[in-house]
Specification:
- Belongs to the MoeA family.
- With 399 residues, this protein is α/β, with parallel strands linked by helices.
- The protein is 19% helix and 29% strand.
- Helix 1 (6-18) packs across helix 7 (297-316) and helix 4 (223-231) packs across helix 6.
Length: 399
């Protein structure tokens, strides 16, 4: 199969992800943090649901002076309500339910009180500092769209909009397969060995992208072990299998052969990107997906941004991550047929003082992670390259 172009790979991965969407569930607000909203969040009633004061001061009826009926703001929960006739006033605080008959709010700093007589040198207009019902939203208004990540602000909005619980997308279960006879998980590697850079970080990345690691396994480089890892009990219970290493075409790479052996098919065989070209997405029996990440750490994480992120967004009903535009701080030569993904950091543009351009981070070879650790974003440089000062697309780091 031919290489997928980078944008096409993202779009196809997103579409494939929608096929593994689980059944949504409803959770109470205090458990909704970090989940993905499965339906539009709408206001159950106008916000605010009644007219309230926007300032500390006095609710007044008509023009002054006014007879002050109550010098202290009433408890909103109290049963007794003040009704203002013309020329009467009552104390309120910000957020107070305004009395019936209120025409305006007189701010406390604009008022003069002598005994029970309230006056002001300012002329009040009808409606001054009254927050009418529905100022923020009308009943039925969409406050957050389906696919929104539920952070604190959205959850607080849901609470004040009348919701006790929210519908959320099912969290896709992910099975991780770490390959490599040469990989060690602790201590100092000897020549021929490498430290495992995947198992500490991939569970965190998967969680940040809206999935959950349900299981994981570590295997050596054999076809039998690879088949067992991607088609065993744990793998069959997962919606998505993610493997590390073994994505090439040599006699020591077994992921593609294992996919074929269990009846899977390659949907994205490789991506025209650097680094991460041998990344692969396969459809496995049982409506499962597999993403095969390259063994080089930076290449693997660029493949996560290209393939795993879109798949999990599709599974959660979220839109594909938006590409933004920044100024390139450096020149990039042409790389025909390939899109380069470059960990980058914000720097001042030429002649500027504020960091508003992106420059490649240092140490960004495919086997290096140091550059990504210092990066603010991922520059997306097309096959035609770029010149310093040109607008260049970038992705926010998805984890």
């Amino acid at each position: 199969m031919e290489d997928h172009q980078w944008e096409a790979a993202r779009a196809d991965a997103h579409a494939l992800g929608s096929r593994i969407a689980g059944i949504r569930e409803t959770v109470p607000l205090h458990l909704a943090g970090g989940r993905i909203l499965a339906a539009d969040l709408t206001a159950a009633y106008p916000m605010p649901h009644c007219a309230t004061s926007a300032m500390d001061g006095y609710a007044v009826n008509g023009t002054g002076p006014w007879k002050l009926l109550r010098a202290h703001a009433a408890n909103p929960a109290a049963a007794d309500r003040v009704v203002l006739a013309a020329g009467e006033a009552s104390a309120v605080v910000t957020g107070s339910l305004i009395p019936e008959g209120t025409t305006a709010i007189l701010r406390v700093e604009h008022s003069t009180l002598q005994g029970s007589l309230l006056s002001s040198e300012r002329t009040l207009r009808a409606g001054d500092d009254i927050r009418p019902s529905g100022t923020e939203a009308s009943a039925g208004d969409v406050l957050a769209a389906a696919g929104t990540l539920l952070r604190a602000g959205v959850i607080a909005t849901a609470a004040v909009a009348g919701h006790d619980e929210l519908p959320v997308a099912a969290v896709p279960p992910v099975h991780l397969v770490f390959t490599g006879d040469e990989v060690i998980t602790s201590g100092h590697p000897t020549p021929g060995q490498v430290r495992d850079g995947f198992s500490p970080v991939l569970p965190l990345v998967v969680a940040a992208l809206g999935g959950t690691v349900a299981s994981s396994t570590r295997i050596g480089d054999t076809l039998a072990a690879t088949i067992a890892a991607i088609d065993g009990e744990d793998a069959r219970a997962a919606a998505l299998v993610v493997t590390t290493g073994g994505t090439g075409f040599s006699e020591r790479d077994f992921v593609r052969a294992a996919v074929s052996a269990i009846g899977g098919r390659e949907a994205i065989s490789s991506v025209a990107m650097r680094p991460g070209h041998p990344s692969m997405v396969a459809v496995l029996p049982g409506n499962r997906l597999l993403v095969a990440l390259p063994g080089n750490p930076l290449a693997a994480l660029m493949a996560v941004a290209t393939l795993v992120d879109p798949i999990l967004r599709g599974a959660n009903g979220s839109a594909l991550a938006e590409l933004h535009t920044a100024t390139s701080a450096t020149d990039f030569t042409k790389l025909p047929g390939r899109t380069r993904l470059v960990p980058a950091r914000w720097v001042p543009a030429a002649g500027g003082a504020d960091p508003d351009a992106l420059a490649p981070a240092e140490h960004v070879a495919p086997a290096m992670l140091r550059g990504l650790a210092a990066a603010d974003a991922i520059l997306v440089v097309g096959p035609d390259g770029a010149t310093a000062g040109d607008p260049v697309p970038y992705l926010r780091l998805p984890w």
